[in-house]
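# step 3/5: fold
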Amino acid sequence: MKKTLLFLLLTVASMPAAFAQARPGGSLSSKDYTGGGVTDSRNTGFGIKGGYNLSGVRGSDIKGIERQSRNDFHAGLYGQFGFNNFSSIQAELLYSRQGFEANTGTAGARQQYRLDYLMLPVMYVGNVTETISFHIGPQVSLLTKAKLEDRDLGLSRNGFNTLDFGGVGGLEARVGPARIGARYNLSLGKIFEDSTPENAAVSTNFGNSDIYNNLLQVYVGIGFTQ
């Protein structure tokens, strides 16, 4: 897991230096917050972003468990490299707090499950208009922490899958260097292993359950020039 985390950090850390070569600076517009440069694109740059998470789980084989969504946040960095004024590739490194609530406590009491992920989406971005673009692409996520209420849960001891994967898709609006958008994350990696260990602190109801993260993100961001 440490090697994977180091790779993700190095990938995103190298983006600004790579993108800086493509832009000497200039005026800003909805498609041009980098000033143009070596490429013909006006969609090259980097910045920060963050926002709201509405997370939960999906799956059809959890019997007797009532689930509710969790409200939390995400934040991170993005880097974008354009091919032309319509097409670009955007990669991000995000810290995302997710999870769900379920009636797994004593006498059916509701409990909060928190899952912290490092996410690396790599998306194709297409400009529909001067201000609106769509984003779509694959994503890989690394589970770094799990909590039940205020108690930390060992990931392997409680049968968590530390690697998640899937796809993302959404829409974004830009005005100058500012951006606002919404995105749905389709998770294809199960939260838990095929069997929950006998000494697991999580509810045994999750054993052998095919359940997946379900996540909607709304965010704001700002792009930078050099």
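# step 4/5: annotate
The two ends are 34 Å apart (CA to CA).
# step 5/5: archive (pending)
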